[in-house]
Amino acid sequence: MADMLAISQLITSLKAAKDIAAAAVELRDSTAFLAEVGKLNAQIVEAQNSIFAIQQDRSALVDTISDLKKRIADLEAWETEKQRYQLAEIAPGIVCYELKEGMSGGEPPHRLCANCYTAGQKRFLQAVQNGPSFFRFRCNACTEEVHFSRGGNPPVNRIKPTYF
Question: Which of 4, 28, 83, 158 would you call most buried, defined as having the most Cβ atoms within 10 angstroms of its Cβ?
Answer without folding.
Answer: 158
